[in-house]
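Regression report. Comparing outputs from two consecutive submissions.

Submission 1:
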Amino acid sequence: MNRVIQFRITKGEKFYVAECLELPVVTQGRTLDEVKANLEEAIALHLEDEDLGDFELGPHPSMLASFELEPVIHAKA
């Protein structure tokens, strides 16, 4: 049983977009705090009244998010 639900967060033009890697859950938010809150709500709603074993999840799974950063290129003077 997996005890971690993984997400990938990317920055769009106006919103941060979070996509779950194990479940069909996608959400967005204007800030990272907002996208975190939306993720928690989306996962809770998706798993509501479900048997976590059907998703190969253990009880009380954690959420792990990876955030893609754009590289910073420093010009040499």
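Submission 2:
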Amino acid sequence: MTSELLMTGAESTIDPLVGTISLLVSLLFSLVITWVYKTTHRGLTYSQSFQFSLVLLGVLGTAIMVVASGSLLRAIGILGAFSIIRFRTAIKDPKDMAFIMFVLTVGLATGAQMYAFAAVETVLLSIVILVLTKLNFGSTSRHESIIRLLCEAGTKNTINTVSYEAIISKLTESFHLLSAHTRGNRIELTYGIHPKRNSSTLSVLEALRKETGIEDVELFDAKHQVEF
């Protein structure tokens, strides 16, 4: 009985017209999803290759579903093929992983000829993403910035960190030392700071830049950094 089922699955054919329609519909939905991703993306991790990957993943998901539909042998073959593939690209932004799952589920639904469900999912989730982005959902007004100082030692080979921290304390709500690294007679200090409400972190940058003994100052906005 089992062998008969396997033979039936192996001999089932794919309707070229249905397959082509499924691939075209999946391509359309994937392009919509990638447009939503590009419109709502924030931060420094934007990648054109990731955009390409989203489109291809959606269409490939449809192709996989079409090939596997109605055949147990095909499904087992695809599962075996995917067990060999290893994806080594690290996903830095959790939202990118959500978009990957988004486009794959739409692709699989399209491959299963569930066009109405795929359309509803694409439209509904796209609206949700656009609205949440417009509302800046999950954001907080009190975020941390990073200040990095490169200081030169004085005549007694000392670093006047007290005066530097006094300036930072005056211009911020709070701060804390993240790291300190020596480079010969220089030291690199990295601070996490919380800017005062309705004030710019550039004021801290300008004040420290004028301080004697500081050779270089760098500012990073941690709100839009995926990793530091």
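Expected: both submissions complete independently.
Actual: both completed, but the second showed a warning that disappeared on reload.
Relevant detail on submission 2: The radius of gyration is 27 Å.
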